[in-house]
Amino acid sequence: MSERRYQLSLIGTSAILGSLTTIAILKLISRWTAKAKAVKKTRSLACFTRNDNVSGSEALSRTNGICSNIVLKHLTGINILEDEVVSEQLTRNIQFFGLESQQKLFNSYVIIVGLGGVGSHAASMLLRSGVGRLLLVDFDQVSLSSLNRHAVGTRADVGTPKAICLQKHFSKIFPECQILAKVQLYDASSDEEILSGQPDFVLDCIDNIDTKVALLASCVQRGLKVLSAMGAGARADPTRIRIADLRESCADPLSRAVRYRLRKDFGIEGGIPVVFSLEKPKVKLLPFKGSSGDEENPSDYQIVPGFRVRIIPVMGTIPAIFGQVMASHVITQLAGLHVQTEPVVNLDIDHYRILHQRLIEHEELLYGSAQHVLVGLEDVIYIVKELWHGRSARDQSSKDVGRKMWRSVNDLMLVRWDSDRPATVSNLILLKFKEADAHESSTIGSIKKEEPEFYEMVTVVLKRAEKDYML
User: What is the domain-level CATH number for residue 150?
Assistant: First the structure.
């Protein structure tokens, strides 16, 4: 009888525990569902298309007002990362950046103009990294031929505006993000509508020169942080992709054209970071053929004036990596994580050997021997490329690139910063011959007194060498 009673008590206990568990799960599902509905309502209010009857700024203001009463009170009134689902979804980011930096990402607003192979991947990773507000801008639609490089597009999305396509998929990935979509072409008339709202970053992923130049110029004039994508088509080597100032970009026809137009039309010489490839295009534009099969003038078939209709052969991985690189740059910037990008220095191993040998000969001539030269060829590569970017320490501008940089090596040499210390990675600077002569006739004390800015700059660079080499 006691055994029977024991079995009944076990059954009763199991039933009670099962009921409590079911109730807890139902409450959790109810909470998630309520939140999803609220965010979905925000999405529908925040979707702007070219058919809207109100201006973008008015619609944005109206939407933000409604959102503040529905969802944004929850999103910004408390720490969103305290939410169980959100904190778990972003846990790897939080472990990498820290909680405070991740919160900065969620509080950020980024605009992406151009949502093709590059822009869609950049936007996707910004979203997945926890950026809290995105504005997606593109006038074009998803096509079958774009599916080889688009971040989220499917066959069911073909014919759908790219901005709406991304918004639809993004709302399922990170519902807490406020995603605004504009199905329109960026031009001078839409400048205020698109760039207002104090964005923390603007990504230029446009492949048309006229529109690209107009957007970049406007960002510079407004003082907005902008990152621009150069040519990703017709390339195959992901290891050659770099981030640098527009002045340093080379081996890229689009960079050259954009640089020329910005200087000619707006007087902008540089100061714009760009993502580009050092690789020369592997293939050319395909000839445009009409319905008759004969080659025709592509401009006769333009839907939008100024936009290309000729096909650029694209291996889908390269635009995707361009977008990933852009997202990484923006994320680290917004999170406050300093990343030292690899400088663009077009020297080969023979140039570094020349500089190393020149240092040894100079030490023998000046000090009677080279026994205090404590650097090898690999160290010289680090000093010249990483510390001084292939340029004189007194001229760290970005004007000498490509073949100009190769020729500039003929006038450069490594010399000790402090003549009383050995020639090590943390005591060598790159100077032109005449500058080296003048430097060796002066002292560190006089430089510090007469040229404090130059002294401070060199000190910072050489301290970086100490840190990198753990000296």
Answer: 3.40.50.720
